[in-house]
Structures are given as C-alpha cells and as structure tokens.
Amino acid sequence: MKLLKCLSRPLGFREGIIVVAVVTLAGSVAYVAPASGQASGGVAPTYGITLPQGYRDWTLISVARVGGPLNDMRAKLGNDVAIRAYRDGKLPFPDGTIIARLAWNQSTSEENNNAVRAVLERGLGPDTAQKVLAESFVAGAPSNVQFMVKDSNKYGSTGGWGFAQFTDGKPDGEAVLKTCFACHAPAKDRDFVFTRYSR
Ligand code: HEC
Predict the structure, then answer these.
(1) Residues 6 or more apart in contact with residue 78 via CB below 8 angstroms
(2) Nearest protein Cα to ligand 1, atom 19
(3) What pLDDT shows up at residue 144?
(4) What is the Å distance from ligand 1's center to 180 Cα?
(5) Cis peptide before 94 (omega within 30 of 0)
(6) Can you list the residues of the chain whose pLDDT is less than 50?
(7) Angle at 85 between CA 53 and CA 66, to 5 degrees
(8) In whole angstroms, how far apart are CA 85 and each of 82, 165, 191, 198?
(9) Can you tell me the distance from the alpha carbon of 52 to that of 147, in angstroms, rounded to the nearest whole number?
(10) How far apart are CA 52 and CA 146, in angstroms?
C-alpha cells in the first residue's frame, strides 16, 4: 500500500507532463499553420518538393542584398536540423536539413526616412544625411522563396540536395530548377551552400 502510494505520485506527475506536451504540440501546430502564410500550392517539379510547413517561423541564418537591377533583399532561414549543423560547424549537412531563401523587393520607407531625417541632418549635415536616406531600404513585396532540401539518397546526383522555388505559394517550373545546382557548384567545399551563419 505504501509502495503503491509512492508510485502513484510519479505516475501522476508523468501523466501531467504528457498532457502538457500534447497541449503544447497541438498549440504549436495550430499556430504554425496560419503563420506560414502560404497555403500548400502543389509539388515543385524535378525534385518533388512541397512548400515546407511553417518555414516562415524557422531560425535566421543570415541576410543578403542583391544590387540593381535586381534590387532584392534576402533572408536565409533554417529548420532545426540546419541550425544545429550550422552551430556545430558540421559539414556535410545531414539528411533532413532544409534551408530557405526568402526574398523581397527592396523598398524605401518614407515613414522611416521622415522620422530620422532631422536628426541625421543635424548630426551629419544635409548632404550626407541625404546620401544615408537614399541608401536606406526595407523589405517590400515578396518575390519568391527557394529551398534546398538534403536527402543524400534521393538527390544523390545533385550533391544530395533537392531544389525548389515557389512564387505566391505556387511551385515554379522545371526550367528555373535546371539552373540551381550548376550555380551552387562553386560552393562544393561547403556542401554547395553559400550562406554562412551570422552571429
Ligand atoms: C546565378 C547563380 C545561382 C542560381 C542560378 C541559383 N542560386 Fe541559390 N544562391 C546563389 C548564391 C550566390 C547564394 C548566396 C547569396 C544569396 O542568397 O543571394 C544562393 C543562396 C541560396 C540558398 C541559401 C543557401 C545558400 O546556398 O546560401 C538557397 C536555399 C538557394 N540559393 C536555392 C536556390 C534554388 C532553389 C535555385 C534554383 C531555383 C537557386 N538557388 C539558383 C546562387 C545561385
């Protein structure tokens, strides 16, 4: 009886943990679905990749900007497997790694510029302030999202990576996917991944 009593406490505690875990999981699934913003829009050709669920909530790896006439701003996000490999400096990236490259048209925020103009002019003088403002940008409309998915068996002929591109949640066609691996080839020493982790 005494033993039973002793046992009943840890069992109850464990059950509590399971309930909490299930509730947390349910909550995160419910949260992730709308936050991804882009509903499933089919399977990208060639590599058979669908838009990964919840990618918009993944962890930031780094940012980049591409100059004119492209003028877009980019963020690279990684799923948990990608981030662990990056932080551990692990190469090649393990199967299950997914790296996302988000891009937006570079845009100017008059609201931001107007808010800081006077302070900049006072501190830097009108000419320099104008220069700073002319080169201050924010992310505008999204252009497309690209993914690299690691599966060394499935994608053995392209360095273990599958490539996909989506515009407005819809997969882009075969023609653009033909360009991916060839252009990533110069990064072979880093498992075909250009982006380094920014601390
Ligand atoms: C003209 C060369 C070129 C082509 C074509 C290209 N990429 Fe990239 N890609 C890059 C470079 C350079 C970077 C790093 C800088 C950046 O993001 O702008 C990059 C970054 C990426 C990243 C982030 C991880 C990394 O390697 O840094 C992903 C994901 C990606 N590209 C996917 C694709 C997909 C999918 C395609 C085909 C639809 C593609 N790329 C086509 C050159 C290219």
Answers:
(1) 58, 59, 61, 86, 97, 98, 99, 100
(2) 194
(3) 97
(4) 7
(5) no
(6) 1-39
(7) 70
(8) 5, 23, 12, 14
(9) 9
(10) 11
**58: which 2 tokens?**
């993944």
CA 150 to ligand 1 centroid distance, Å? 14
148 with 162: CB under 8 angstroms?
yes
Dihedral sign for Cα 125, 127, 128, 132, please: positive
Point out the ligand 1 atom lying closest to the alpha carbon of residue 163: 35
Measured CA to CA in angstroms, residue 79 lies from 8, 38, 98, 103, 145 at distances of 39, 17, 6, 17, 15
CA of 40 to the centre of ligand 1 (A): 22
Amino acid (1-letter code) at residue 19: V
Q: Which distant-in-sequence residues (6+ apart) come within 8 Å of 179 by Cβ?
A: none
Alpha-carbon distance 151 to 94, whole Å?
Answer: 8
- Residue 13, both tokens: 């505690």
Give the ligand 1 atom nearest the CA of 76. 23
- pLDDT at res. 96: 98
Q: Which residues contact 155 (CB under 8 A, 6 or more apart)?
A: 47, 149, 161, 162
Amino acid in position 62: S
Residue 41 CA to its chain's centroid (Å): 18
Phi, psi of 85, rounded to the nearest 5 degrees: -65, -45
Ligand 1: residue whose CA is nearest its atom 10: 184
